[in-house]
Design brief:
Layout lengths: L1 H25 L19 E4 L1 H4 L2 E5 L9 E8 L8 E6 L12 E8 L11 E5 L4 E4 L9 E6 L8 E5 L6 E14 L25 H33 L1
Antiparallel strand pairs: 1-4, 2-3, 3-10, 4-9, 5-8, 5-10, 6-7, 6-9
Length: 243
């Protein structure tokens, strides 16, 4: 009976590990609606409000990314008092083949520019139209990407979604970086990438040498053999005990 319990525990553990692996594999690089790995689809994004007065702009860069080749860097150039403090950037639901964003979950990943830690008081992920909906973004890091989400009610006929101008205080330079802007419909389907995904280019310095690969492979094989032998000895010992 004890032997059966041992094998049952091992089988359960294996099932849990397999399930976790499949869950991780389900989230693939390039799945986001906008990956910002190229500048090909930046024209889909429109600005409004105080964009011109704050020098609010964004561009595609390759020096930062959560996934893929790049992201967008959001900048401002505020030198004085702003007369009207509102605005941001958005995409239209029509661009993605949707009548509106009702029932959708909108998400994006954000990274803070360390020098702008005190200049994100107005930053939010939003959806606008019939009603104004937003998720304020205040607790973000300059070392790790933070995912922000906004769930839009089914009956909200909102045709616009995007992010707001981060600050209206004097500031000049990059403020935040945005990657993986995704729109998921009510049935759990992520709107497919619009065509701006590009796999990250791995530099020669980042690759592992052939010699290192061989050594790592040998070590892995030895570890696997050791584990198999160890399990065999344990099982053999248990069988002898209950024989």
């Amino acid at each position: 009976m004890k032997l059966k319990k041992i094998f049952a525990a091992v089988t359960a553990a294996a099932a849990i590990l397999t399930s976790s692996s499949l869950t991780a594999l389900a989230l693939e690089d390039g799945q986001a609606t906008y990956c910002f790995d190229t500048s090909d689809k930046l024209a889909d994004w429109q600005t409004y409000g105080s964009a011109a007065e704050t020098g609010f702009s964004f561009k595609q860069i390759t020096t930062n990314s959560k996934n893929g080749e790049g992201c967008i860097a959001v900048s401002e150039n505020v030198t004085g008092e702003i007369s009207e403090t509102y605005g941001g950037a958005y995409i239209s639901a029509e661009t993605l083949g949707l009548p509106d964003f009702g029932g959708c979950t909108i998400s994006m990943s954000v990274l803070l520019n360390d020098a702008a830690a005190n200049n994100i008081e107005n930053l939010s992920l939003y959806c606008d139209g019939m009603i104004w909906l937003e998720t304020p973004i205040v607790d973000i890091s300059s070392s790790e990407w933070t995912e922000v989400t906004l769930v839009v009610p089914e009956n909200a006929e909102n045709p616009r979604a995007g992010f707001t101008i981060p600050t209206f205080s004097p500031y000049s330079g990059e403020i935040i970086y945005i990657d993986d802007f995704a729109v998921t419909t009510s049935d759990g389907t992520v709107i497919a990438n619009v065509g701006d995904y590009k796999a990250r280019t791995v530099s020669e310095a980042e690759t592992v040498s052939t010699g290192t690969n061989i050594v790592l492979t040998v070590v892995l094989v030895v570890l696997i053999l050791a584990i198999v032998i160890g399990i065999g000895l344990i099982v053999s010992s248990v069988i002898k005990r209950f024989a």
